[in-house]
Amino acid sequence: MGSLAMDERYILINEQAIQQGKPVAVQIREDELFTWQNVQAILSPQPFEGGVALEVLDLHGATKDRWFIRVLEEMDEEVNVEKGDYF
Which pTM was predicted? Predict the structure, then answer.
């Protein structure tokens, strides 16, 4: 898997679950293929075991910050990642 990116809105939508270390539904971009994928993942602003670097993009698509992610599962495109689902 190449480098990963995610829009910052998913941090805002899932803020409470992220702080509690719960898995959340987000959409990430895999830069080698430039494709977006819905995933269930753990996110953190700090490095953690099993986590890989994740570029957080601002509303204009520019890199704003670096977080860390561990993808637990790829999910169907029909999953509504905008409503802040967590598991």
Answer: 0.86
